[in-house]
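Notebook B, p. 112. Complex prediction, attempt 2.
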Amino acid sequence: MFITDIRKEFYEVVANQRVALLVASDVDALCACKILQSLFHCDQIQYTLVPVTGWQDLSTAFLEHREQFRYFVLINCGANVDLLEMLQPEDDSIFFICDTHRPVDVVNVYNDTQIKLLIKQDDDLGVPSYDDIFRDEEDEEGDDSGNESDDGSEPSGKRRRFDEVNIGHYWREILFDYEQYEYHGTSAAMMFFELAWVLTKDTKDMLWWAIIGLTDQWVHDKITHMKYVTDVATMQRHVSRHSHRNEDEENSLSVDCMRISFEYDLRLTLYQHWSLYESICNSCYTSCNFKLWTLNGQKKLQEFLADMGLPLKQVRQKFNCMDMSIKENLRDVIEESSNKYGLKDIRIQTFGVHFGFKNRFFASDMVHATAALLESTDKDGSDSDNFIKALESLSRSNLDRLHSGIDLAKKKLLAIQQTVASCICTNLILSQGPFLYCYLMEGTPDVNLFSKPMALTLLCKYLLKAFVHSTRNKRCKLLPLIMAAPKSVEKGTVIIVGIPPESEISDKKNFFGRAFEKAAESTSSRTLHDHFDTSIIELKMEDRSKFLDALITLLS
Amino acid sequence: LSNSDLIPSIKLRHCCLLRNQRCLVAYLYDRLLRIRALRWEYGSVLPPNIRFHMCSEELQWFSQYKKSLASFMRSLGAGEGLDITQDMKPPKSLYIQVRCLKDHGELEIDDGTVILLKKNSQHFLPRWKCEQLIRQGVLEHVVS
């Protein structure tokens, strides 16, 4: 069921209890976790934090902790599957789920006792009404079967089964339509920030984490532009509320205090921690629009820089060492020139933080750094080690960690750009009919970076954007893309990611989750649907071709 | 050689012996001070790899020191006893955030509930429960 009053129905319930936090491995979940941890520290609520990377991890973690905890909080996992069916918990276990994955499984929505969804009911959900999909076995007489809350004949309202003897396939169709497309809702970090705000325990740190969570959704293309802009406006109100002291000249804050500001900044990834030139070359937006993998593109870039009057020597310098006179009007100068070259949206609404003399970061910088740490391919780091390092990098006191994350992020972006360039130049993207397909061979440089889901998804999105800019085939521009990369050499598996087609007005809804399931079933391929995003799976290398053929048939 | 010719060398050797004795005694005394510090660091049960390096007299001394510290602690607090080896630094909060550095199995806390200490899991627990384990290196205090 959906929670309406998050303070009464969640926070006050767990106030004197011990809670198990099961947190997924993405930046939004980490930010939400940090906010919740701060609240728990403030009110001395004991908890145990367990990172989980997939469904198997979640089940194992639950098994290990089921005896000791009654209350479980799941962050960015658990909403899109029948959780009670999967975990088989005791009758008194209660699950609070704050998850951006949609669609929310109908069993989770209509369970009254054990599943509490920390999700806003108006969050673009489209859940089918109870009457349309459930039919109780006892209600053959035709009386009101929609009464979910106090129907005494229900066995504790815990598990509802679809009555197979239903008249017609109406409910099957409704369910199919509802579950067909996978997408994302409001950031979990923002939900927990709202909880903090309702409790009037919100701090600037929590606000910054909420902003990072929202920006993560934008960087990894999980939400539509409209939604991003709406959520930015919400966050901006909070930022103004927290910043009103700054303007007061008499009592102005020390420079070491944290200041968050709204910025209408350039869409150049990590440019303040890199040189402007490198950032332009390695940011998806500029690289795709200039087509920097071609000679022509390189020439255009030089013209662009000349047009702005920026000497090459300056532009290749570390950003912090550039001349002040250039840095002052940089944004406006770049915007003006970009408009001439057809880059209409070079600026984007975002937020920046500033504490001490040296430390200035944009929200997107933090997202890239934390994501790079989370998926670091360091040999001696296990998944949970990486989780802890990434979690640490979000605290202001761990700047070394953050800077190492930024370095890793730069390497990752460079690798992505080089891979994109080579894929486009060697025509590695093939049209299979209903979709585009690209396979990264084993010897490809940096291919181990792309065995991780977030990195591969980012590569996939950049590649599709680049492809759309470079191809002349009008039909191909509207196709979705599936990408495969080697995941584990010992196990002989590949990781497969599918993303929806690239368009300005895309609603980011992804149908590959269901498509992959069906294709795997029909060809009895050995697949592992372990990731919380159903559009990311692991497949045995030998089954690749039959799996693809099945997909082509399915989607034609 | 007459007896009086030997006197300087005897004196010299005697001084050397006395000096060696002083060095040895200083060494043994330093060891004693370190063993005393071990009680404060590790608690009343020493890990086997440390006991390996101690001779039996030192172990005996250690247990006598333990006894006298225990009887002193019992006498504090108007007969109720006070564990002064807890809270060596002034505590900042009742509960602290800890991270588990190695698999330690289960830990029981005051109200009977059990916590599973698995590598890389993080917990928010009462300070007094964690101090021992922090000293033993099983848990790490996380300051954020």
